[in-house]
């Protein structure tokens, strides 16, 4: 399991005195302060699910539990002087923000801590491992089980099927990330994902725009 380090050219950081007063500060630390490892994925039954099977499963879950809610974290690090976001890559193809689906009646913050521990920590996945969850910066909706997500609830969506929430996660100065072997953890520059829905999908490619209210400060000491 490797970590891809990609450097890009970007404009100079905004000085503190020049920031709009409403901007919040997110301190990020160099990628070199973090260490990375791999773990065996939890075994799951081998199931060959067709598209029709998946549609039936989603409909059954909706009938039993209602709206499906997913929570994901935006984790930022510094590399080559520029902010990068940590993404999980599945089978060298699709990209994901760390997180996942909430359980029935599970709260957003509690569920995101559980999911981050499951995907990014090596110990008990039920511990929160000191995750510092910040504010929700965006919500995406699916009006039906197979429709693309929208950054707003379409007016004709009487009973939306899924809500996807993104939260800023403030990382400490140093920590370890232990990822299941079937996944890769990549540090990808914000400038590379910006507007690049063809590669990263509509949600990830929209993350740079969602960070407009934050000032990103690199802390090197």
Overall helicity: 10-25%
Indicate the low-confidence ranges by residue numbers: 1-17
Number of continuous helical runs: 5
CATH domain fold name: Nucleoside Triphosphate Pyrophosphohydrolase
Q: Helix/strand-derived class?
A: alpha/beta
CATH class: Alpha Beta
Order of helices and strands: EEHEEEEHEEEEHHHE
Main pleated-sheet profile = 7 strands, mixed
Q: Note the overall shape.
A: globular
The strand count comes to 11
Strand content: 25-35%
Mean pLDDT value: 85
At CATH level 2, the architecture is Alpha-Beta Complex
Distance between the termini: 29 Å
Please specify the SSE layout and strand pairing.
Blueprint lengths: L23 E5 L6 E5 L11 H15 L2 E12 L2 E9 L3 E3 L2 E3 L6 H13 L11 E11 L19 E9 L5 E5 L2 E7 H4 L3 H9 L1 H4 L3 E5 L3
Parallel strand pairs: 1-11, 2-9, 3-8
Antiparallel strand pairs: 3-4, 3-6, 4-5, 4-10, 7-8
Give structural notes.
This protein has about 220 residues and is α/β, with parallel strands linked by helices. The protein has a single domain (about 25-40, about 50-220), classed as Nucleoside Triphosphate Pyrophosphohydrolase. Helix content is about 20%, strand content about 35%. It has five helices and eleven strands. It is globular and about 50 Å long. The model is unreliable at about 1-15 (pLDDT under 50).
